Amino acid sequence: MGKYLLKRLLVMIPTLIGVTIVVFAVINLAPGSPVEQKLQALRFGGGGNAATVSDGSNSRGSSTVSDEVLAALNKQYGFDKPLHERYLKWLGNIVRLDFGESFTYEEPVIDVIFSKFPVSLQFGIASLILSYLISIPLGIGKALKHGSLFDTSSSFLLFVAYSIPPFMLAILLIVFLAGGSFMDLFPIGGVYSDYYDDLSTWGKITDRLHHFVLPLFCYTVGSFTSLTLLMKNSLLEEIKKDYIRTARAKGLPERAVYLGHALRNALIPVVTGLGGFLLVFFAGSLLLETIFQLDGIGLLSYKSVLARDYNVIMGLVFLQSVLFLLGNVLSDLAYVLVDPRIDYT
To answer: Is pLDDT of 54 > 50?
Structure first.
Protein backbone atom coordinates (compact mmCIF):
# COMPACT_ATOMS: atom_id res chain seq x y z
CA MET A 1 0.00 0.00 0.00
CA GLY A 2 2.85 2.37 0.84
CA LYS A 3 4.45 1.85 -2.57
CA TYR A 4 1.13 2.49 -4.28
CA LEU A 5 0.62 5.77 -2.41
CA LEU A 6 4.19 6.86 -3.16
CA LYS A 7 3.67 6.08 -6.84
CA ARG A 8 0.41 8.05 -6.93
CA LEU A 9 2.03 11.05 -5.23
CA LEU A 10 4.94 10.98 -7.68
CA VAL A 11 2.55 10.84 -10.63
CA MET A 12 0.91 14.02 -9.31
CA ILE A 13 4.05 16.04 -10.08
CA PRO A 14 4.06 15.71 -13.90
CA THR A 15 0.27 16.00 -13.89
CA LEU A 16 0.43 19.31 -12.06
CA ILE A 17 3.18 20.56 -14.35
CA GLY A 18 1.13 19.64 -17.41
CA VAL A 19 -1.99 21.38 -16.07
CA THR A 20 -0.11 24.55 -15.15
CA ILE A 21 1.69 24.70 -18.52
CA VAL A 22 -1.61 24.55 -20.42
CA VAL A 23 -3.37 27.10 -18.20
CA PHE A 24 -0.35 29.43 -18.09
CA ALA A 25 -0.07 29.42 -21.88
CA VAL A 26 -3.80 29.96 -22.45
CA ILE A 27 -4.20 32.91 -20.08
CA ASN A 28 -0.99 34.59 -21.23
CA LEU A 29 -1.81 34.25 -24.91
CA ALA A 30 -5.37 35.53 -24.48
CA PRO A 31 -5.91 39.19 -25.40
CA GLY A 32 -6.24 41.81 -22.72
CA SER A 33 -3.13 41.49 -20.54
CA PRO A 34 -2.69 43.45 -17.28
CA VAL A 35 -0.42 45.84 -19.20
CA GLU A 36 -3.24 46.67 -21.62
CA GLN A 37 -5.65 47.23 -18.77
CA LYS A 38 -3.15 49.48 -17.02
CA LEU A 39 -2.73 51.49 -20.23
CA GLN A 40 -6.47 51.97 -20.42
CA ALA A 41 -6.47 53.16 -16.81
CA LEU A 42 -3.72 55.66 -17.70
CA ARG A 43 -5.74 57.02 -20.61
CA PHE A 44 -9.18 57.20 -19.04
CA GLY A 45 -7.96 57.94 -15.53
CA GLY A 46 -6.02 61.01 -16.54
CA GLY A 47 -2.61 59.40 -16.26
CA GLY A 48 -2.30 59.35 -20.01
CA ASN A 49 -2.22 63.14 -20.20
CA ALA A 50 1.23 63.18 -18.64
CA ALA A 51 2.52 60.48 -20.93
CA THR A 52 4.36 61.26 -24.12
CA VAL A 53 2.67 60.15 -27.32
CA SER A 54 4.70 57.46 -29.02
CA ASP A 55 5.40 57.09 -32.71
CA GLY A 56 2.62 54.56 -33.15
CA SER A 57 4.96 51.62 -33.66
CA ASN A 58 3.77 49.83 -30.53
CA SER A 59 0.95 47.38 -30.88
CA ARG A 60 -1.59 46.29 -28.23
CA GLY A 61 -3.12 49.73 -27.97
CA SER A 62 -0.06 51.54 -26.59
CA SER A 63 -0.08 54.51 -29.00
CA THR A 64 -1.07 56.98 -26.30
CA VAL A 65 1.85 56.33 -23.94
CA SER A 66 5.58 56.59 -24.37
CA ASP A 67 7.83 53.62 -24.99
CA GLU A 68 9.44 54.22 -21.58
CA VAL A 69 6.09 53.88 -19.80
CA LEU A 70 5.26 50.75 -21.77
CA ALA A 71 8.64 49.19 -20.98
CA ALA A 72 8.25 50.06 -17.30
CA LEU A 73 4.81 48.45 -17.20
CA ASN A 74 6.07 45.31 -18.93
CA LYS A 75 8.91 45.05 -16.42
CA GLN A 76 6.59 45.71 -13.49
CA TYR A 77 4.28 42.89 -14.46
CA GLY A 78 7.05 40.57 -15.65
CA PHE A 79 6.10 40.69 -19.33
CA ASP A 80 9.56 41.82 -20.45
CA LYS A 81 10.64 38.16 -20.71
CA PRO A 82 9.58 35.37 -23.08
CA LEU A 83 6.65 33.14 -22.13
CA HIS A 84 8.74 30.09 -21.21
CA GLU A 85 11.03 32.11 -18.97
CA ARG A 86 8.05 33.59 -17.19
CA TYR A 87 6.62 30.12 -16.61
CA LEU A 88 9.89 28.74 -15.26
CA LYS A 89 10.14 31.72 -12.90
CA TRP A 90 6.57 31.16 -11.74
CA LEU A 91 7.25 27.43 -11.25
CA GLY A 92 10.36 28.21 -9.21
CA ASN A 93 8.34 30.53 -6.99
CA ILE A 94 5.65 27.87 -6.52
CA VAL A 95 8.27 25.45 -5.17
CA ARG A 96 8.87 28.05 -2.44
CA LEU A 97 5.08 28.44 -2.02
CA ASP A 98 5.27 31.97 -3.41
CA PHE A 99 2.24 32.65 -5.61
CA GLY A 100 3.27 36.20 -6.40
CA GLU A 101 1.24 39.37 -5.96
CA SER A 102 -2.22 40.08 -7.25
CA PHE A 103 -2.29 42.74 -9.97
CA THR A 104 -5.78 43.82 -8.94
CA TYR A 105 -5.62 43.77 -5.15
CA GLU A 106 -1.87 44.56 -4.95
CA GLU A 107 -1.54 41.98 -2.16
CA PRO A 108 0.08 38.53 -2.01
CA VAL A 109 -2.06 36.06 -3.92
CA ILE A 110 -2.24 33.63 -1.00
CA ASP A 111 -3.67 36.40 1.21
CA VAL A 112 -6.26 37.30 -1.42
CA ILE A 113 -7.37 33.67 -1.75
CA PHE A 114 -7.45 33.07 1.99
CA SER A 115 -9.55 36.19 2.45
CA LYS A 116 -12.30 34.54 0.36
CA PHE A 117 -12.03 31.17 2.12
CA PRO A 118 -14.49 31.72 5.00
CA VAL A 119 -17.59 32.05 2.81
CA SER A 120 -16.77 29.22 0.40
CA LEU A 121 -15.48 26.94 3.15
CA GLN A 122 -18.56 27.34 5.31
CA PHE A 123 -20.97 26.56 2.52
CA GLY A 124 -18.73 23.81 1.11
CA ILE A 125 -18.45 21.88 4.38
CA ALA A 126 -22.10 22.38 5.33
CA SER A 127 -23.40 21.29 1.92
CA LEU A 128 -21.12 18.23 1.86
CA ILE A 129 -22.22 17.06 5.31
CA LEU A 130 -25.88 17.68 4.60
CA SER A 131 -25.69 15.90 1.26
CA TYR A 132 -24.43 12.67 2.81
CA LEU A 133 -26.61 12.92 5.92
CA ILE A 134 -29.70 13.21 3.72
CA SER A 135 -28.82 11.03 0.74
CA ILE A 136 -27.62 7.87 2.50
CA PRO A 137 -30.62 7.38 4.84
CA LEU A 138 -33.05 8.47 2.12
CA GLY A 139 -31.47 6.14 -0.42
CA ILE A 140 -31.63 3.23 2.02
CA GLY A 141 -35.26 4.01 2.81
CA LYS A 142 -36.16 4.13 -0.88
CA ALA A 143 -34.41 0.78 -1.46
CA LEU A 144 -36.19 -0.84 1.51
CA LYS A 145 -39.56 0.39 0.16
CA HIS A 146 -38.78 0.01 -3.52
CA GLY A 147 -41.89 0.38 -5.66
CA SER A 148 -43.99 1.82 -2.83
CA LEU A 149 -45.83 5.14 -2.82
CA PHE A 150 -43.00 6.63 -0.73
CA ASP A 151 -40.39 5.54 -3.29
CA THR A 152 -42.40 6.81 -6.26
CA SER A 153 -43.34 10.16 -4.77
CA SER A 154 -39.84 10.85 -3.40
CA SER A 155 -38.30 9.97 -6.78
CA PHE A 156 -40.63 12.44 -8.47
CA LEU A 157 -39.64 15.19 -6.03
CA LEU A 158 -35.95 14.35 -6.45
CA PHE A 159 -36.15 14.56 -10.24
CA VAL A 160 -37.98 17.88 -10.03
CA ALA A 161 -35.34 19.26 -7.64
CA TYR A 162 -32.52 17.99 -9.84
CA SER A 163 -34.02 19.50 -12.99
CA ILE A 164 -34.14 23.04 -11.54
CA PRO A 165 -30.85 24.93 -12.07
CA PRO A 166 -29.44 26.19 -8.73
CA PHE A 167 -29.38 29.82 -9.87
CA MET A 168 -33.02 29.64 -10.97
CA LEU A 169 -33.94 28.02 -7.68
CA ALA A 170 -32.12 30.84 -5.88
CA ILE A 171 -34.15 33.47 -7.76
CA LEU A 172 -37.42 31.68 -6.97
CA LEU A 173 -36.54 31.41 -3.28
CA ILE A 174 -35.68 35.10 -3.10
CA VAL A 175 -38.91 36.08 -4.85
CA PHE A 176 -41.14 33.91 -2.65
CA LEU A 177 -39.29 33.80 0.69
CA ALA A 178 -36.90 36.76 0.88
CA GLY A 179 -39.13 39.76 0.36
CA GLY A 180 -39.18 39.65 -3.44
CA SER A 181 -42.96 39.77 -3.91
CA PHE A 182 -44.44 37.50 -1.26
CA MET A 183 -43.07 36.51 2.18
CA ASP A 184 -40.05 38.12 3.83
CA LEU A 185 -38.76 35.22 5.93
CA PHE A 186 -35.04 35.18 5.14
CA PRO A 187 -32.40 37.88 4.60
CA ILE A 188 -30.18 38.06 1.54
CA GLY A 189 -26.76 39.60 1.16
CA GLY A 190 -23.68 38.41 3.04
CA VAL A 191 -23.48 35.78 5.77
CA TYR A 192 -24.49 37.95 8.71
CA SER A 193 -26.35 41.17 9.51
CA ASP A 194 -24.92 44.66 9.85
CA TYR A 195 -25.55 44.60 13.61
CA TYR A 196 -23.81 41.22 14.00
CA ASP A 197 -21.11 42.52 16.40
CA ASP A 198 -23.75 43.80 18.83
CA LEU A 199 -25.42 40.39 19.19
CA SER A 200 -24.87 37.81 21.91
CA THR A 201 -23.13 34.51 21.17
CA TRP A 202 -26.41 32.69 20.60
CA GLY A 203 -27.69 35.66 18.61
CA LYS A 204 -24.66 35.49 16.32
CA ILE A 205 -25.23 31.77 15.74
CA THR A 206 -28.90 32.20 14.89
CA ASP A 207 -28.14 35.21 12.70
CA ARG A 208 -25.64 33.23 10.64
CA LEU A 209 -28.01 30.27 10.39
CA HIS A 210 -30.76 32.61 9.24
CA HIS A 211 -28.52 33.92 6.44
CA PHE A 212 -27.35 30.40 5.55
CA VAL A 213 -30.73 28.78 4.88
CA LEU A 214 -31.42 29.86 1.30
CA PRO A 215 -27.85 29.70 -0.12
CA LEU A 216 -27.15 26.38 1.59
CA PHE A 217 -30.36 24.89 0.22
CA CYS A 218 -29.32 25.89 -3.31
CA TYR A 219 -25.80 24.51 -2.79
CA THR A 220 -27.11 21.19 -1.49
CA VAL A 221 -30.19 20.32 -3.51
CA GLY A 222 -28.44 19.11 -6.66
CA SER A 223 -25.75 17.01 -4.96
CA PHE A 224 -27.93 15.12 -2.51
CA THR A 225 -30.43 14.28 -5.27
CA SER A 226 -27.88 12.39 -7.34
CA LEU A 227 -26.32 10.77 -4.26
CA THR A 228 -29.70 9.52 -3.08
CA LEU A 229 -30.43 7.76 -6.35
CA LEU A 230 -26.90 6.37 -6.44
CA MET A 231 -27.31 4.98 -2.93
CA LYS A 232 -30.66 3.40 -3.75
CA ASN A 233 -29.57 1.83 -7.03
CA SER A 234 -26.33 0.55 -5.53
CA LEU A 235 -28.20 -1.12 -2.66
CA LEU A 236 -30.80 -2.66 -5.00
CA GLU A 237 -28.00 -4.02 -7.21
CA GLU A 238 -26.24 -5.51 -4.21
CA ILE A 239 -29.26 -7.43 -2.93
CA LYS A 240 -29.44 -9.40 -6.19
CA LYS A 241 -26.15 -11.17 -5.47
CA ASP A 242 -25.70 -14.72 -4.20
CA TYR A 243 -24.51 -13.90 -0.68
CA ILE A 244 -27.72 -11.95 -0.09
CA ARG A 245 -29.80 -14.93 -1.19
CA THR A 246 -27.78 -17.07 1.23
CA ALA A 247 -28.48 -14.64 4.08
CA ARG A 248 -32.18 -14.77 3.29
CA ALA A 249 -32.11 -18.56 3.14
CA LYS A 250 -30.76 -18.57 6.69
CA GLY A 251 -33.97 -16.86 7.79
CA LEU A 252 -32.54 -13.43 8.54
CA PRO A 253 -35.09 -10.61 8.60
CA GLU A 254 -35.15 -8.34 5.56
CA ARG A 255 -33.86 -5.30 7.47
CA ALA A 256 -30.86 -7.29 8.74
CA VAL A 257 -30.13 -8.50 5.20
CA TYR A 258 -30.14 -4.94 3.87
CA LEU A 259 -28.36 -3.14 6.69
CA GLY A 260 -26.11 -5.89 8.01
CA HIS A 261 -24.92 -7.46 4.77
CA ALA A 262 -25.68 -5.41 1.65
CA LEU A 263 -25.15 -1.89 2.96
CA ARG A 264 -21.37 -2.00 3.35
CA ASN A 265 -20.79 -3.15 -0.22
CA ALA A 266 -23.45 -0.78 -1.51
CA LEU A 267 -21.55 2.15 0.00
CA ILE A 268 -18.51 1.52 -2.22
CA PRO A 269 -19.74 3.65 -5.18
CA VAL A 270 -20.90 6.36 -2.76
CA VAL A 271 -17.58 6.76 -0.96
CA THR A 272 -15.81 7.56 -4.22
CA GLY A 273 -17.14 11.09 -3.87
CA LEU A 274 -15.71 11.47 -0.37
CA GLY A 275 -12.28 12.12 -1.81
CA GLY A 276 -13.65 15.30 -3.28
CA PHE A 277 -14.30 16.74 0.16
CA LEU A 278 -10.96 18.57 -0.12
CA LEU A 279 -12.47 20.70 -2.86
CA VAL A 280 -14.86 22.22 -0.31
CA PHE A 281 -12.00 24.60 0.42
CA PHE A 282 -12.66 26.06 -3.02
CA ALA A 283 -16.37 25.44 -3.19
CA GLY A 284 -17.82 28.40 -4.99
CA SER A 285 -20.58 29.16 -7.43
CA LEU A 286 -20.40 32.39 -9.39
CA LEU A 287 -24.14 32.61 -9.96
CA LEU A 288 -25.13 31.75 -6.38
CA GLU A 289 -22.53 34.08 -4.91
CA THR A 290 -23.72 36.86 -7.19
CA ILE A 291 -27.41 36.32 -6.47
CA PHE A 292 -26.92 36.05 -2.68
CA GLN A 293 -24.16 38.70 -2.63
CA LEU A 294 -21.52 36.37 -1.18
CA ASP A 295 -17.87 37.28 -1.57
CA GLY A 296 -16.36 33.83 -2.13
CA ILE A 297 -14.00 31.87 -4.34
CA GLY A 298 -16.43 31.66 -7.28
CA LEU A 299 -16.73 35.43 -7.52
CA LEU A 300 -12.97 35.85 -7.05
CA SER A 301 -12.28 33.48 -9.96
CA TYR A 302 -14.66 35.34 -12.25
CA LYS A 303 -13.28 38.78 -11.35
CA SER A 304 -9.70 37.55 -11.75
CA VAL A 305 -10.41 36.27 -15.25
CA LEU A 306 -12.05 39.55 -16.24
CA ALA A 307 -9.18 41.58 -14.79
CA ARG A 308 -6.57 39.21 -16.28
CA ASP A 309 -5.10 38.79 -12.79
CA TYR A 310 -2.78 36.02 -13.90
CA ASN A 311 -1.20 35.32 -10.52
CA VAL A 312 -4.56 34.82 -8.81
CA ILE A 313 -5.82 32.61 -11.64
CA MET A 314 -2.71 30.45 -11.54
CA GLY A 315 -2.84 30.26 -7.75
CA LEU A 316 -6.45 29.07 -7.82
CA VAL A 317 -5.78 26.55 -10.60
CA PHE A 318 -2.71 25.16 -8.84
CA LEU A 319 -4.37 24.78 -5.43
CA GLN A 320 -7.53 23.27 -6.89
CA SER A 321 -5.51 20.80 -8.97
CA VAL A 322 -3.51 19.70 -5.92
CA LEU A 323 -6.66 19.17 -3.86
CA PHE A 324 -8.37 17.31 -6.72
CA LEU A 325 -5.44 14.90 -7.14
CA LEU A 326 -5.13 14.36 -3.39
CA GLY A 327 -8.87 13.71 -3.29
CA ASN A 328 -8.46 10.91 -5.83
CA VAL A 329 -5.83 9.30 -3.63
CA LEU A 330 -8.12 9.58 -0.60
CA SER A 331 -10.93 7.97 -2.60
CA ASP A 332 -8.68 4.96 -3.18
CA LEU A 333 -7.99 4.78 0.55
CA ALA A 334 -11.71 4.96 1.25
CA TYR A 335 -12.21 1.98 -1.07
CA VAL A 336 -9.85 -0.07 1.07
CA LEU A 337 -11.58 0.92 4.29
CA VAL A 338 -15.03 0.03 2.97
CA ASP A 339 -14.00 -3.13 1.09
CA PRO A 340 -10.98 -5.01 2.57
CA ARG A 341 -10.93 -7.24 -0.53
CA ILE A 342 -9.36 -4.37 -2.47
CA ASP A 343 -5.57 -4.54 -2.31
CA TYR A 344 -3.39 -2.04 -4.14
CA THR A 345 -0.18 -3.92 -3.41
So the answer is: no
